[in-house]
Specification:
Elements lengths: L1 H9 L9 H7 L4 E5 L11 E4 L4 E5 L3 H6 L1 H18 L19 E5 L6 E5 L11 H6 L5 H4 L1 H10 L2 H8 L7 H11 L3 H10 L16 H9 L2
Parallel strand pairs: 1-3
Antiparallel strand pairs: 2-3, 4-5
Helix pairs in contact: 4-7, 9-10
Length: 227
């Protein structure tokens, strides 16, 4: 676990908000940069990875969006860290790639507008709050490709490790939306990211088509049996 490695390195326990950039820099050895990344019609690319340079890049086209939603920047960094940690074959970084075999189906390449480099971009939906409806797919038991992806789970567990989440919810009402927003603020994540994480841990359950929050699936099932 990367967080445990960071704790061993620093000699101090990690608390919310998880120092994502320090972990990525000191444990994964990756740098950060802001560059303008080209987008095709209908795309919103928030970030990418330049593997050969060990560099996570954030798209300067969306600087205002990142500034308005700090949790979005952190989740984007977490996604790209997951792409590096899970998907990248380090042994092949400095070897020529054969035509047709250079990318996985889940990855596309886009040009950086201000330099002659290619940025690897995860070929999935944008990470912002417009995808809050994702939790409805979860409650229907039909995980989308985004949810099934190891990279998505990686960033979620990195920003919201289970032991910190479970410690935090002990002293709060998980069925209260204001309390959930407070926890999202504490962890510096988007509310949609938090909801998905809590659902995966069975800390909350939200029935499809509602905003009613239950303390896990058993709580919901028990309430149904009362009527």
């Amino acid at each position: 676990m990367r967080i445990r490695q960071y704790e061993q390195l620093t000699g101090a326990p990690v608390m919310f908000p998880v120092p994502i950039e320090k972990i990525v820099e000191r444990i994964l050895g990756l740098d950060f940069d802001w560059i303008e990344i080209e987008e095709q019609t209908g795309e919103q690319i928030l970030g990418g990875l330049i593997p050969e340079e060990r560099r996570i890049v954030l798209n300067s086209r969306h600087l205002a969006l990142f500034q308005s939603k700090p949790g979005l920047e952190r989740s984007t960094v977490g996604h790209e860290a997951g792409h590096w940690d899970i998907d990248i074959d380090r042994t092949s970084l400095h070897h020529p790639r054969l035509p047709g075999f250079d990318l996985q189906p889940s990855v596309v390449r886009r040009h950086a507008m201000d330099r002659h480099v290619l940025v690897e971009v995860l070929n999935r939906a944008a990470y912002d709050d417009r995808y809050f409806e994702l939790y409805r797919e979860l409650t229907a038991g039909q995980d989308s490709p985004e949810v099934r992806s190891a990279v998505d789970r990686y960033q979620s567990s990195l920003l919201m490790p289970e032991w910190l989440i479970k410690a935090a919810v002990k002293s709060m009402d998980v069925k209260s939306w204001p309390a959930l927003y407070e926890l999202a603020t504490l962890a510096q994540v988007t509310i949609s990211n938090l909801i998905v994480r809590l659902h995966r841990l069975d800390i909350i359950y939200i029935p499809e088509g509602t905003r009613d929050v239950y303390a896990g699936r058993d709580d919901f099932t028990g309430q149904k049996h009362l009527f």
